[in-house]
Amino acid sequence: MDELGAPERRRWQEVLLLVAVLAETVVSALLAGSWVGLLQSAAIGAGGVALLWRHRHWHWMLPVLLVLNAFAWSIVLLVIVPYAYATRSPRRLPTFLVAVLTALSGLAPLTWTELGDDHLVGATGAALTVLIVAASAATGMYTATRRMLLAQLRQRAEQAESGQAVAQDQARRAERTRIAREMHDIVAHKISLVALQAGALEVNPSLDREQVQQSAALIRETATTALSELREVLGVLRGDGEEAPLAPQPTWEDVRRLVVTSQEAGISVELFDFIDDPVPDPLARTVYRVVQEGLTNIHKHALHTRARVALIGEPGTDLVVEISNVLPKGFTTDLPGARMGLSGIETRVTHAGGTITSGPTDDGRFEVKAVIPWPTAP
Hints:
Elements: H1 11-31, H2 35-50, H3 54-72, H4 75-88, H5 92-112, H6 119-203, H7 209-238, H8 252-264, E1 269-273, H9 281-301, E2 307-313, E3 318-326, H10 341-351, E4 355-360, E5 365-373
Parallel strand pairs: 1-2
Antiparallel strand pairs: 2-3, 3-5, 4-5
Helix pairs in contact: 1-2, 2-3, 3-4, 3-5, 4-5, 4-6, 5-6, 6-7, 6-9, 8-9, 9-10
C-alpha cells in the first residue's frame, strides 16, 4: 500500500502473533504421530516467525508463505496472510488472487490426508476454509479502506490547519501594516507640525510675549490632539472597548482644517476648494489622508516653498485632489521619514477605486494628484 494509510507496526500485535504461532506449533507437535507431522509443526513455526517481516517484504513473502502453507496447513497463516495482503495492496485484483491462493493452500491438504476420504468431513473442512479466507480478506479490505479514508481526512485537516495558519499569518501581517500606516497618518502630520512650530520659535528669538504664547498654545493643542488620536488607536489594539473606532474618523471640514493648521504653523499654502456638494464620509476620509500626507511631506522637505491644495469635483464624476509645492533648492531636513506615507495613501486611493500619481512636474513643482470616483448619492 502507498504511504498514505499504510498499516502501523504495533508491538502488541507482534507479541500476540508470536503467541498464536507458538501455541499452534506446540499443539501440532503434540498431535504429530510421525516425522511428517513434526515437519509440519516446524513449517508452522517457521511461517509464523516469517510473518514478522511482512511489513517490509509483503509483496513476495506472503504468497511464498501460502505455498508453504499447502504443506504446513497452519490456521494462523490461513487467517493472517490474506488479511495482511489486503491491508497493504492498493489494488483489488491481486488481493482476490491471493485470497484464491490462500483457499487453495488450505484445501490442498484435504486431497492427500485421511480427512479427504470422508466426504462429509472434507466438504465441511473445505467450506470452513473458504469461509475463513473470505472473512479474512474482506476484513483486510475493509480495514485498508478505512485506514485510507482516515488518512485522507487527517491529511485534509492538516492542510486546512496549515492553510488557516498561513491565512492568519497573512492577516496579522496585513493588520500590522494597516496599523503602521494608521499610526503614520495620525502621528507624522501632527508631530511634523509640532517640530515646525518649535523650530519657528527657535529661529525667531525676537518674538514678543503674545506671539510666543500663541505658538506655545498651538504646539500644546497639536501635541494634545496627536496624543488623543494615538490613545484611541492604542485603545483599540488593547481591546479597551468594543465600540471604539479603528481610527479617528475625519470629515470634510477636517480636510479644510488641515490647510488652516499648516497656515497657522507658518507654511505658505493656499487652498483652492471648488467643492460645493456634501462629500460622503468614506470619500472625505480618503481625501483627508491624501491631503494630510501631502502636507506632512511639505512640512518635512519643502518648508520654505509656496504650496497649494486644490479640491475639484462633483457627484457622479471624480473628486480630484492636488497637493503641490515649488521644488526646494538645497533644502534638507532632519525629520525622520517612515517611507510608508505615499504607499499608504496609494493603497487607500486604490481601494476606493481611484488612482494616484506623485512626482516632479514640468513647471518645477512636486505634485501629488489623486483621482477618486465620487458616486452619486442614492
